[in-house]
Design a protein that fits this description.
This is NADPH:quinone reductase. The protein has helices spanning about 40-45, 120-125, 130-140, 155-170, 180-190, 200-210, 225-230, 250-255, 270-280, 295-305; strands at about 1-5, 15, 25-35, 55-60, 65-75, 85-90, 95, 105, 110-115, 150, 170-175, 195, 215-220, 235-240, 260, 285-290, 310-315. It has about 325 residues and is an alpha/beta fold. The strands form three sheets. Strands 3, 5, 6, 8, 9, 16 and 17 form a seven-stranded mixed beta sheet that branches. It has a six-stranded parallel beta sheet with strand order 12-11-10-13-14-15, sandwiched between helices. It has a four-stranded mixed beta sheet with strand order 2-1-4-7, with no helix packed on it.
């Protein structure tokens, strides 16, 4: 089968011909129809999980998010059957049996569930990690209808989902953008206000529009100093999350804010919640870029350099 893999940590992703995996007890074999690209995918080949406790195997097939059809079920599997349309996070131990491949083996008890009915496999593959991250951050901000939330990094995958989920909950979303096209897209996704961060410092622009402060912050782009500066915008008692692990608990406590460094808790229950929102028409899946396996190495370079808008999906 064709797959994108590396032969060592920090290796260059390469299109390889590899054996199709054999189904094992408790696992399913998925004929992958599409895989979603996330920054975590290249962080994984850089060794972010190489802690001496997590097993890896090489060649290490990349990819966490995927969607496809169950090709075969292993002994003891009860939740799925051949022909089921599924999606989710394919990541499991050993690291290296990922979704950037024509076939993938996934444990039944991993983050896998039935795919939403109203969207295509390529759209479903864009959902799992970004969608769950957005859903859980919005939930944990504990905001009320009418509250104001600033989403810094709104035009990316997580930001696009977070904007829609927040708007569906009745929150007033301030979305950061870099150009007029981005502003138009974010308004279509439900943003009430867009701010072009290239025109003037973000905090200054937010203060000018919301001098009374905002209720919540989701920040996916700022460094430590930038995040702490943005905390000054949040009202006492509000919430703030960063996905870049730059939060200082003391800085949050000083302003009586909850939140901090955010880590997604994946699983079928969260995926099923997203599926319901998608099937109810409350979330549009923002697939901006559709590529083939041979295009993945260049797409990974673009992701590393922060040059990607929206979600990129690999179509098998």
């Amino acid at each position: 089968m064709k797959a994108i893999a590396v032969s060592e940590f920090k290796g260059i992703p390469t299109l390889m011909d590899l054996p199709r995996p054999d189904v094992r007890p408790g696992t399913v074999l998925v004929k992958v129809q599409a895989a979603g690209i996330n920054p975590f995918d290249w962080k994984m080949i850089d060794g972010i999980m190489n802690n001496g406790k997590t097993p890896h195997q090489f060649p290490l097939i990349m990819g966490v998010d995927g969607a496809g059809v169950i090709e075969e079920v292993g002994e003891g599997v009860t939740h799925f059957k051949k022909g089921d349309l599924v999606y989710g996070q394919f990541i499991h131990m050993p690291i290296g049996e990922g979704s950037y491949a024509e076939y993938a083996i996934v444990p039944e008890k991993a983050g896998l569930t039935m795919a939403p009915m109203r969207i295509s496999p390529e759209e479903a593959a864009a959902v799992p990690t970004s969608g769950m991250t957005a859903l859980q951050m919005i939930d944990k901000l504990k905001l009320q209808k009418g509250d104001v939330v600033l989403i810094n990094g709104a035009t990316g995958g997580v930001g696009s989902f977070a904007t829609q989920i927040a708007a569906a909950k009745g929150l007033k979303v301030i979305a950061t953008v870099g150009d007029e096209a981005g502003a138009k897209r974010m308004h279509q996704l439900g943003a009430a206000v867009t701010i072009n961060y290239k025109k003037a410092p973000l905090a200054d622009q937010v203060k000018a529009k919301f001098p009374q402060g905002i209720d919540g912050l989701i920040d996916m782009v700022s460094d430590k100093a930038g995040f702490e500066n943005n905390l000054q915008l949040v009202k006492e008692g509000g919430g703030a999350f960063t996905t870049l692990f730059v939060a200082d608990d003391e800085a949050l406590k000083a302003r009586n804010l909850h939140g901090g460094n955010f880590e997604t808790e994946g699983g079928p229950a969260a995926l099923d919640q997203l599926s319901r929102l998608i099937d109810q028409g409350q979330i549009k899946v923002p697939v901006e870029n559709r590529i083939r396996l041979e295009d993945v190495p260049a797409a990974i370079v673009a992701s590393r350099e922060g040059k990607v808008t929206g979600k990129t999906v690999i179509i098998m």
